[in-house]
Amino acid sequence: MRFVSIQALIIMKEAAGRPRDLDHIQHLRWILNEIKEMNRTDDDIDWSLTTWEGSRRAQLRHWLAFTVRERLQAIEDLAEVAARIARFTATE
Fold it and tell me: Which pLDDT belongs to residue 79?
């Protein structure tokens, strides 16, 4: 098995120029941005959020801060992400 970086995969797919790769390229860019966000370092780490219970409480606090309209938008966005993942996994 051969491994390549996500950035290299994006470059290869762009170079191929196949229309069917456009969704895959966008998905890979999204993954790359998520990885960059996860690798961001902050000096103030709340270690309680690293447990299942702590992360669940933090997620509930975030949701409570949203207005009803923002909650609906977030649910629609999550549905779109789920559909993209389903399309991505169905093609492989």
Answer: 92
